[in-house]
Amino acid sequence: MKTYEEINQKIKSGDAVVMNAEEIINYVEQKGLTKAAEEVDVVTTATFGPMCSSGCFINFGQSSPKIRITEAWLDDVPIYSGLAAVDAYLGATQLRQNDPANMYYPGDFRFGGAHVIEKLIRGEQVQLFALSYGTDEYPTKEIRTYVTLDDLNQSQMVNPRNCYQNYNIATNTSDRSIYTYFGHLKPKMQNLVYCSAGQLSPLLNDPLYTTIGIGTKVWLAGAQGHVYAEGTQHSSDCNRSENGVPREGAGTLSLTADMKEMDPEFVRGVSFKGYGVSLALGIGIPIPILNEDILKQTTVRDKDIYAQLIDYATDYPNATGKSLAEFNYEELKSGEVSYRGKKIEVSSISSYSKAVKIANRLKDEIQNGSFTLAEPYKKLPPKSSTKSMKIINEK
Amino acid sequence: MTTRKYLLQFPEKAVGKPLIYHLAKDYDLMVNIFRAKIDPDDTGYMVLDISGTDENIKRAALFFKENGIIINEKMNGLTWDKERCVSCGNCITHCPSNALAITDRSTMEVSFNDEKCIECMNCISHCPFNACSSIFNNTK
Lengths: 395, 140
Ligand code: SF4
Ligand code: SF4
Known about the structure:
The complex is a heterodimer of chains A (395) and B (140). Chain A has helices spanning 4-12, 23-31, 33-39, 113-121, 202-205, 292-298, 329-333, 352-367; strands spanning 18-20, 42-50, 55-59, 71-74, 77-79, 87-91, 126-131, 142-147, 154-162, 169-171, 178-180, 183-185, 191-194, 217-220, 223-230, 253-258, 267-272, 276-288, 306-311, 325-328, 336-339, 342-348. Chain A has 8 helices and 22 strands. In chain A, β17 and β18 (276-288) form a beta hairpin. A 4-stranded antiparallel sheet of chain B has the order 2-3-1-4. A two-stranded antiparallel sheet of chain B has the order 5-8. The N and C termini of chain B lie far apart (37 Å).
């Protein structure tokens, strides 16, 4: 049994024993759970993939004469300015003004909010165009200028839904190609696509939210940030295996961190033909090994984590909740699975190799004393489910 | 007899010359064109196989250079930007030649083998990270 304070003491003195969630599997197998739980202080977990519910709050600083922005664009991408004078929110999936979207199906969606975020973090200049109706104390009505991340007073990434605990596997049973946030799904189930780091993924290593809670410190694209709430659509009340690991979407996290501390390698605008724009993010979360139970959960293997195969041609859009089959991540990562006697190619849109890199970066930072742990001040809701929308036709 | 695969890139002024005619007549070469874009007002390219004696192929290469044509022997019509690639693997099931592949399933890293690439362009629209591009496809 260890406490957060003891682990942080060891981190500060450079003595913490840290392993990533892949390495810990064999280590515990060799040493046994009891011995390993005494020795290991922290297990690092990570994920890298598209996370649509992301964006950032920005403060541009005042112009002279001042402006109370009512409408604004960064590189022609509309940003939300229903906030104080020069504050705005830039959302990842926002399309560029005049993007033809799916008018010529499937659209290309080459550039949107996520790409602006990537450019800012790369240190590149982006164009600000802002309008106002003008007031007595904020007389300026129009501004066109260029800004970089350094010019901004604040640039705080605030992501309402990141780090899905687990996710669907997508396929297409129809006889035409479909274009989704899982990419191109070929007709008649010619391919399956998944999106998870499996055994490395943060919430799959802490399936019952024992240490990952509100207030937990996280590595968000290289910056030190934290979990500020449960993520939107957090559905902890879900179908779980005996080991507690969800067999479907389940929990999510709301994360925040300062964009000025981020590394552009882990913040990437992505374009999905026929779907739109999203932001791929790299996230690492440390799990303190306070006791054997916590350690045991981090030894989960790809073969013990299942996900549901969902038909994105019918069942997903119509929200039927039907699953065609389930596969574990060991099967999925092999690149081929069989379904009703037929072999189907498998690919992913998350990156396992980037997740390994992030877990190792976080491990290094903990070992060299620059990343300490924070104890959550509140648990994630253990039994929450997602409501669907009511459609009211008449009142 | 040797066969070489070339990607020829034409600057504006070199477009419009009877190139293939010269290859056949002056250097006794057999030419097989896979892909070409020739636009008199613009730059152009041509992907071709040239078969003949080593000596004649060498002379033809000199002829290209004299005419301002850029010879690209590595056939990198398709450019895979290693830095932009995150190894998500989305392109793998859309690459018919396995030029883009995960060769080691323990690391799940994606690599590109330009010798296998048949320049079908599939990966360009299937890479969400914009890691693949081609001079043959100016929409990127
Ligand atoms: S152009 Fe075609 S063959 Fe070449 S790497 Fe891309 S998908 Fe594969
Ligand atoms: S889809 Fe793009 S980023 Fe993903 S593995 Fe292929 S080339 Fe790399």
